[in-house]
Amino acid sequence: MLYIKCPHCGMRSQNEFSYGGDASVKRPELNKEVSDQDWDNFVYNRKSLRGKHWELWQHISGCRQWIKVERDTATHEIFRTLKADEEISL
Amino acid sequence: MQKYSIFNLVKNALSNHQNWDLAWKDPTPKKEYDVVIIGGGGHGLATAYYLAKEHNITNVAIIEKGWIGGGNVGRNTTIIRSNYMHDDNALFSEFGMDLWRKMSQDLNYNVMFSPRGIINLAHSDAQMNVYARRGNSMRLNGIDAVLLNREQVREIIPMADFSENVRFPIFGGLMQPSAGTARHDAVAWGYARQADSMGVDIIQNCEVIGFDVSGGKINGVRTSRGDIKAKKIGLCVAGSTNILAEKLNMTLPIETHLLQACVSEPVKPVLDGVVTFGAGHFYISQSDKGEMVMGGDLDGYNSYAQRGNLPTLQHVLTEGIAMMPFLSKLKMLRTWGGIMDMSMDGSPIIDKTHIEGLYLNCGWCYGGFKATPASGWTFAHTIAQDRVHELNSGYSLNRFNTGHLLDEKGLGTKTWIS
């Protein structure tokens, strides 16, 4: 069982959350020229890191907020959590 | 190579089975090969076998970080089927079914292929319509499919829940009678033994550290057991694809996810074929030893841990008990996990890459085992001829760029939604 510290609600079990994927992926800016490669990278291509990985989770059965979680994909250890609008500092 | 036969079995029994040849050798890596296959799983071993058998390329090495057959080919639920709707998937898988039927003879190794059929249960009228459509598509591609009504399903699996007032009543199901199971380890060992006998070097405990690429061409691979030169290198590493891709500065439409499976204590024969629950994601069969072999959803987040968490297992088994209530009485014997190379449309990639001499075989999601022979056959063709075969032309890497996705399940890119 994973325990995720929601920045709004505190420590909760994995059962209350749903996964939202790689949080480092940035949508290309609106109203600007976007190359096919940029779209591919946004929609399909993923680094899928082994080790520390920033990812989106939604506290779907709690406050329903999206959050960012830094988790190790090899050990499942969770290091930090951020609110959705907080920038990841590497 | 010693042939496995009743005659040899009796002969070796006389010497207490002390004089059997080793099934495969343990060679020291040479400095150079014509082809190096990275990954000694089912697909890698099959690729090497078909390179030697179909294309007479025998100066081949398989390099494997751990031991052969220790990854997903040794930890799957052994289901073999070709019940796909899209042409590319259907024709590829049905080609594989033919190879499965001949495999034990072909490899002189009993892979215990057992075509006992698979039934996908339907729990609504709408689902019956969808299955009728899929069944018709399958039949148009020469694959056997039978649409069963509730009573026909009840005759085959009377232990399923046919009582009134259940949340997901069984309306019927789609059956592929020629689907089945096989002994997964035997598949890896059978391919390894034959590949070895034709001259392929199987090099275990040999980790890839990096690649030697210059001028857009691959020249070799750097390993924990020294540098190996090769003009052609095939990647067959399933859940570790992204780790090796990073060393090649490639970003792929793949995420690595965790899938669990489990077996119960062994019980008397109760279930003949494979059955899948239609209102969730759960599948079950009974092994020859009597264990109920079960699996279902991904754990649902990126993971390289070959072990799972309890919430998913609990969720999956809840579905199983909804479908077959007697399962609640069984004790669990063991559970395990493996890491899946989940592609962004649910279909695999067998293709050349932008690096000359580098070939890619990945994205099998949780359906790689059944594809072992067809994957090896087409990947060997792609490597040997330096062009894709008609059968794997739909499994191109650039389909994500051109929009020719093969989205069999219609889930889009959210691989964790099973």
Description:
The complex is a heterodimer of chains A (90) and B (418). Chain A is built from 1 helix and 6 strands, in the order E-E-E-H-E-E-E. Chain A has one helix at 36-43, and strands at 3-6, 10-13, 18-22, 52-58, 66-72, 78-83. In chain A, a hairpin with a 5-residue loop joins strand 5 and strand 6 (78-83). A 4-stranded antiparallel sheet of chain A has the order 3-4-5-6, with no helix packed on it. Chain A has a two-stranded antiparallel sheet with strand order 1-2. By secondary structure, chain A is mainly beta. Chain A is globular. In chain A, 9% of the residues lie in helices and 37% in strands. Chain B is an alpha/beta fold and 418 residues long. Helices cover 29% and strands 27% of the residues of chain B. Chain B is built from 10 helices and 18 strands. Chain B has helices at residues 6-14, 42-55, 87-107, 125-140, 150-156, 184-197, 241-247, 310-323, 372-385, 399-402; strands at residues 32-38, 60-63, 79-80, 118-122, 146-149, 172-176, 180-181, 201-203, 208-214, 217-223, 226-235, 254-266, 274-277, 282-286, 291-302, 332-343, 349-352, 358-362. In chain B, the strands form 3 sheets. In chain B, strands 1, 2, 8, 9, 10, 11, 17 and 18 form an 8-stranded mixed sheet that branches. In chain B, strand 14 (282-286) and strand 15 (291-302) form a beta hairpin. In chain B, helix 2 packs parallel to helix 6 (184-197) and helix 2 crosses helix 9. At the A-B interface, strand 3 and helix 1 of A face helix 7, strand 12 and strand 15 of B.
Question: What layout of secondary structure does this protein have?
Answer:
The complex is a heterodimer of chains A (90) and B (418).
Chain A: E1 3-6, E2 10-13, E3 18-22, H1 36-43, E4 52-58, E5 66-72, E6 78-83
Antiparallel strand pairs in A: 1-2, 3-4, 4-5, 5-6
Chain B: H1 6-14, E1 32-38, H2 42-55, E2 60-63, E3 79-80, H3 87-107, E4 118-122, H4 125-140, E5 146-149, H5 150-156, E6 172-176, E7 180-181, H6 184-197, E8 201-203, E9 208-214, E10 217-223, E11 226-235, H7 241-247, E12 254-266, E13 274-277, E14 282-286, E15 291-302, H8 310-323, E16 332-343, E17 349-352, E18 358-362, H9 372-385, H10 399-402
Parallel strand pairs in B: 1-2, 1-11, 2-8, 4-13, 11-18
Antiparallel strand pairs in B: 3-7, 4-6, 5-6, 9-10, 10-11, 12-15, 12-16, 13-14, 14-15, 17-18
Helix pairs in contact in B: 2-6, 2-9, 3-9
